[in-house]
């Protein structure tokens, strides 16, 4: 029938395209360093959880190191220290932003290294 969802092939969840919604990177974290870490800190505060995909894989294409990464590693420019300081400032902002909005028990804890 026309309204019978069992006849609709698109109703099969295995055929649906997965979508992930997450907050944007904070614009202050530009170039190299801490942008992905900052984004996942925000995701933790939102209480999102993660799943392990035992049959999943990622392909990473090697690429030349960027000029910004060289600056990141160069003590003369101190970009690493600046981003570390900015990250700590950002974490304080998250605490202030989500105080009273998010139950601290719902904030996803940081991963801990475990002995195998």
From TrEMBL:
Q: Which organism is it from?
A: Eucampia antarctica
Subcellular localization is given as:
Membrane
What's one GO MF term for it? xylosyltransferase activity
- The annotated region (Disordered) lies at 1-20
Tell me if Acetylation is a UniProt keyword of this record: no
Q: Name one GO biological process term.
A: protein O-linked glycosylation via mannose
Q: What is this protein called?
A: Uncharacterized protein
Q: Where is the composition biased (Basic and acidic residues)?
A: 1-12
Tell me how this protein sits in the membrane.
Answer: Single-pass type II membrane protein
InterPro entries in UniProt: Xyl/GlcA_transferase
Q: Which GO terms describe its cellular component?
A: membrane
Instruction: Kindly state which keywords UniProt assigns to this record, in alphabetical order.
Output: Glycoprotein, Membrane, Signal-anchor, Transmembrane, Transmembrane helix
Highest rank taxon of the organism: Eukaryota
Predominantly, its location class is: membrane
Q: Tell me which Pfam families the record gives.
A: Glyco_transf_49 (PF13896)
């Amino acid at each position: 029938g026309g309204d019978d969802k069992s006849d609709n092939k698109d109703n099969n969840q295995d055929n649906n395209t997965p979508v992930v919604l997450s907050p944007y990177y904070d614009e202050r974290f530009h170039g190299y360093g801490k942008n992905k870490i900052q984004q996942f800190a925000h995701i933790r505060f939102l209480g999102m959880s993660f799943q392990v995909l035992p049959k999943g894989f990622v392909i990473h294409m090697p690429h030349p190191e960027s000029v910004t990464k060289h600056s990141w590693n160069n003590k003369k420019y101190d970009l690493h220290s600046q981003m570390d300081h900015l990250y700590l400032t950002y974490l304080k902002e998250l605490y202030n932003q989500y105080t009273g909005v998010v139950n601290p028990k719902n904030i996803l804890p940081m991963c801990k290294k475990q002995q195998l």
